[in-house]
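User: structure tokens for this one?
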Amino acid sequence: MVDMSNVKLRIENIVASVDLFTQLNLERVIEMCPHSKYNPEEFPGIICRFDEPKVALLIFSSGKLVVTGAKSVEDIERAVNKLIQMLKKIGAKFSRAPQIDIQNMVFSGDIGMEFNLDAVALSLPNCEYEPEQFPGVIYRVKEPRAVILLFSSGKIVCSGAKSEHDAWEAVRKLLRELEKYDLIGEGEEEEW
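Assistant:
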């Protein structure tokens, strides 16, 4: 069985789509948003940055948002609630609670051991490795859907997960595959 006790994962970024279920007058909204940019000829939404929580929001007249840069789901919820309070001050009406959908979570981590990436690439299915292009193995997990970048140092980046649970499950599947092909433990020390 795969030992996950040495594996560390940390959230680096969460991207969420949000529906406020209301139309917005962006000319009025821009007046309320500190640290924001609105140039409709370049981009159809407002780019607004909050310092607390530290996130960026793309705000569209349809009442839809994209929130990025969050380190937790709570940060996204706090940012959306903060924006709603600002919008209420300019007369925006809300008939229901916002709908927040996590689109992507990016984690950095460490598996706690080193790898021979040539051996990994030759053994594992669903992976790509072109060291001239990128110094890590790109491993694709089908369920839960995620992509893991594995570096020879054992450092990883996991993206595409929709939850922290999914990220851990994707890493668990990678480790099972590495173990299955004898790339963990004694097998990792083989010279290729």
